[in-house]
Specification:
single chain; 193 residues; 5 helices; Aminopeptidase; alpha+beta; 8-stranded mixed β-sheet
């Protein structure tokens, strides 16, 4: 039996901090602009996400000052920067975006800084966001979408427990082009106890 959502969209009143054994996830702040700018210079982040390319400093400022603040204020796009607890270094970003017109559903997304890939950080952070969305916010469904070929993101989704549902042809837009997109979902019942 499917669990009923507690609310129609992610809408905490204030940004929420999530912690794991190795990570702290918190809303971006002014001091993160330089680290976000540096991380998003990576060609792989630009290739597989919707971040602007080339990525300019004003794009990092927009991410921190506008996108994240507005997303938390409206509850429609919750954005976290992910930091290594031990060093405080930015290791990536996580997002939880409400699916318009589909109450109780949200899309997850992430990117990882090049120097921190392969350590399991993105899996750890994505699992924390999934638990928060499904258990704390009471969402009924999380969706992971990625452009076909993004094997790294697909591996993360699989390790978190997302179930692959197929390929959506010419589905997701990236800088004016529509690309084939993989989709997977995670329900509250899929989470381990």
């Amino acid at each position: 039996m499917d669990e009923q959502p507690k609310q129609n969209s992610p809408h905490p009143t204030e940004p929420v901090v999530l912690t794991t054994d190795r990570l702290v996830l918190r809303a971006p702040c002014e001091g993160d602009v330089d680290a976000v700018f540096a991380a998003c210079q990576d060609e792989e982040i630009q290739r597989w996400t919707v971040v602007p390319s080339p990525y300019r400093r004003q794009d990092a400022e927009y991410f921190v000052h506008d996108l994240a603040i507005d997303g938390w204020r409206t509850g429609e796009n919750l954005v976290w920067c992910v930091f290594e607890r031990e060093t405080g270094a930015l290791v990536g970003s996580q997002g939880l975006m409400a699916c318009a017109g589909r109450p109780g559903a949200a899309e997850v997304g992430w990117w990882a800084a090049k120097e921190f890939r392969g350590r399991g950080y993105t899996v750890e952070a994505a699992a924390a966001v999934a638990r928060y969305g499904l258990r704390e916010l009471g969402l009924r469904r999380l969706e992971w979408l990625a452009y076909v070929g993004n094997e790294g993101s697909r591996a993360v989704a699989g390790k978190v427990g997302f179930r692959f549902e197929g390929t959506l042809r010419s589905y997701s837009e990236q800088r004016g082009r529509f690309l084939d997109t993989w989709i997977a979902s995670l329900l509250a019942g899929d989470l381990p106890d």
